[in-house]
Amino acid sequence: MSAQTITREEAVGPYFVGVDVGGTSIKIGIVDDLGRTLAYTSFPTEGEKDTADAIRRTTQVIHGLLATAGLERSEILGVGLGTPGPMDIKRGFILDPTNIPGWRHYPIRDRLAEAVGKPVTYANDANAAAYGEYWVGTGRNYPSLVMITLGTGVGGGIIIGDLSVEGENSHGSEIGHIAVDYGPDARMCPCGQPGHLEAYASATAVIARTTEQLQAGRASSLQAVLAQEQKLTGLQISQAAEAGDDLALEVILTTADYLARGIVILMHTIDPGAIVLGGAMNFGGSDHPVGKQFLDRVKQGVDRHAFPLLAQRIAIDFASLGGDAGYIGAAGLARAAQKPPTP
Amino acid sequence: MSAQTITREEAVGPYFVGVDVGGTSIKIGIVDDLGRTLAYTSFPTEGEKDTADAIRRTTQVIHGLLATAGLERSEILGVGLGTPGPMDIKRGFILDPTNIPGWRHYPIRDRLAEAVGKPVTYANDANAAAYGEYWVGTGRNYPSLVMITLGTGVGGGIIIGDLSVEGENSHGSEIGHIAVDYGPDARMCPCGQPGHLEAYASATAVIARTTEQLQAGRASSLQAVLAQEQKLTGLQISQAAEAGDDLALEVILTTADYLARGIVILMHTIDPGAIVLGGAMNFGGSDHPVGKQFLDRVKQGVDRHAFPLLAQRIAIDFASLGGDAGYIGAAGLARAAQKPPTP
Asked: Does the structural domain A15-133+323-338 have CATH classification 3.30.420.40?
């Protein structure tokens, strides 16, 4: 998704820079005080290269975007930086992210602050995306939200007022690692523990669960796809479900059931105003028949198992900022860090 | 437990009043700016009577305590009030607490504020107790904590900095209602849902689980107790375990296993500095052999199932304020509400 931008004349200062580091690309945007983007670009992460290279390039790109937006450096109050974990948020270190092998134990927050000459607020990428949805996305009308990101893995962010729950050890909001199955056949999570939500609801898990059923001989239009391509994609499963394939739909709806288990736990511990479902694995979103069935099934699970008052009041919907949520949220966290909290 | 009090000379102002309403008694203390008690008393709740009576009596008692402590009304900055739920914290209403039948849909916060002439901060009783432990109890050296209260039911409080997670609908921190068993034989929680922590780890649940094993013919010294008294107590189970009864110890250690499941979920979502176990069902606490075995078994479960870094860093211990945590924490929340948040 490319960001919708506003002009300098429409914008309301002060301004913030958001930087969203992912395994494949680094997204950077200049965001106004209302969370709207003035200028945006992205470039490949080249994660095998040195982190210092990325800091230099990021700094150059920020200067370029400022020129594009028609802003002076002095009009930028702060920079928000989101990266994947593991990380040490308090000390500002990225530790050893799986998909960015060249970046290890690097004081990324302070190096970026030195290069740009602005204070940098450092956050987990999933928490930053959650803050973006909270600030100007699906959660914008709610005082708190939990975002669950269904992608290659399952990530999340918990936002309560202006607080992003990052945890004492930078492991807050690790929603993919809530256990949703304690049975003897619970699926193994990539983290090594059984039964975690990520082992059921990530794209990887949905593909694995479908493939296992196919290998067990289950009739499905996907048998031919698997035979031909050796390997399924989430999109193929979603399309098969739309075309009426029973197995594909069953796997998707079972995914919703496990997701509802995690959501109910979050409702009983955080009691947020909204649950926002982000990430690529949205089955087309709520405008799409499969996405709508998925969302409805999640809500049915919540209705059945959450406190009735909460089930009645909670808003559950797909995210609305797409790939922009991360840098917008990072900018928003920089803004929240600059402003004195409201009493 | 009766509060340890300090003198007016030792105390550091400003001062706060904490009121902790329970099913059997109302506890009231005057607390200084460091969380120390200057004067304390309690009286029966008489929950069948009108709430207005209780407000009048509470106000009289507060004035009496001020005289005892040698304080002027003007030295009190605010009052903290904790009550059981269900409640509407934002509107300041107690709704329909199970154990206080005379108190229903009553604007308790504003009525108390009018009667005392001070601002009243309203909180769930379990969250207030958690804040007490965070402020001056077991959690005092940690920037965040989760308290789990094991009593007749299982309650809890999540404190992150000065934020008590009360939720949008006053149902935050309902830790007893985290699911820890999704199996077909999961135990039913009093709330009507299967598999919740409360259905395994409350005193009621521990007694029920033991009694079921006895009724199934399991050999145990408790068979004689049950035959004679028809009904067990938590203390009898704890004493049987200490005396070497296998069944009693097994039930207690299995309780720890279920508790660890809930704690691991809280570690992966909140990542707090400490987990504090409160409530009457502490098996004698960590100075007692059974309490120590219980705590060790909780820690073993956490070591096995939480992220290793978090398992290594988390502090897990029993609460230290006993029955004083509620009013001290309520006073602390009143204090936090009066002070501008630190940036």
From this structure: yes
Q: Which fold has domain A140-319?
A: Nucleotidyltransferase; domain 5 (3.30.420)
On the CB side of A274, CA atoms within 13 Å amount to 24
Query: Taking CB atoms and an 8 Å cutoff, what residues of chain B touch A143?
Result: 168
How does pLDDT run across A146-205, given as a tens digit for each residue?
999 999 999 999 999 989 999 999 999 999 999 999 999 999 999 999 999 999 999 999
- Share above pLDDT 70 across residues of chain A, in percent, rounded to a whole number: 98
Q: Say whether pLDDT at A339 is over 80.
A: no
Tell me if residue A255 falls in helix, strand or coil: helix
CA distance B81 to A341: 24
Q: What is the tens place of the pLDDT at every residue in B46-73?
A: 877 888 999 999 999 999 999 999 999 9
Q: Which residue has the tokens 């100075």?
A: B287
- Is the ipTM here above 0.85? yes
Suggest the residue from B145, B187, B269 to mutate for an interface test with chain A (most A CBs closer than 10 A).
Answer: B269
In DSSP terms, A148 is beta-bridged to: A156, A277
Q: In chain B, which residues have their Cβ closer than 8 Å to the Cβ of A168?
A: 142-144, 271-273, 313
Contact B180, A269 (CB under 8 A): no
- Label residue B1 by pLDDT band (50, 70, 90): very low
User: pTM for the whole thing?
Assistant: 0.96
Contact A268 B178 (CB under 8 A): yes
Which two three-digit tokens encode residue B20? 């902790």
Q: Looking up tokens 């197995």, which residue turns up?
A: A247
The span from the CA of B161 to the CA of B143, in Å, is: 6
A191 contact residues in B (CB cutoff 8 A): 307
What is the DSSP track for B297-310? Answer: HHHHHHHHHS-HHH
Task: Answer yes or no: are the C-beta atoms of A137 and A319 closer than 8 Å.
Answer: yes
d(CA A169, CA A328): 24
Asked if A270 lies within 8 A of B163 by C-beta distance, the reply is: no
Mean pLDDT of chain B: 95
| pLDDT of res. B343 | 42
How many CA within 13 A on the CB side of residue B153?
19
Q: How far apart are CA A166 and CA B270, in angstroms?
A: 8
Contact B165 A270 (CB under 8 A): yes
Question: Beta B15-21 vs B76-83: how paired, if at all?
Answer: parallel
CATH number of the domain located at residue range(s) B15-125+323-338 in this protein: 3.30.420.40
How far the first Cα of chain B sits from its last, in Å, is: 37
Work out whether strand A76-83 and strand A37-44 pair parallel, antiparallel, or are unpaired: unpaired
CA B339 to chain centre: 24
Euclidean distance between CA atoms B331 and B120, whole angstroms: 10
Decide if domain B138-319 falls under CATH 2.40.50.140. no
Strands ordered across the beta sheet of B163-164? B163-164, B154-160, B144-150, B274-278, B315-318
Assess contact for B148 and B276: CB atoms under 8 A: yes
- How far, in Å, CA of B97 to CA of B170, rounded? 13
- Chosen for mutation from A178, A254, A269, A303 (greatest number of chain B CBs closer than 10 Å) is A269
The CATH 3.30.420.40 portion of chain A extends over 15-133+323-338, 140-319
In the block, tokens 């720890």 appear at B256
**Mean of all residue pLDDT scores within chain A:** 95
What are the start and end residues of each CATH 3.30.420.40 domain in chain B? Answer: 15-125+323-338, 138-319
Task: Please indicate whether, in this complex, the C-beta atoms of A165 and B270 are within 8 angstroms of each other.
Answer: yes
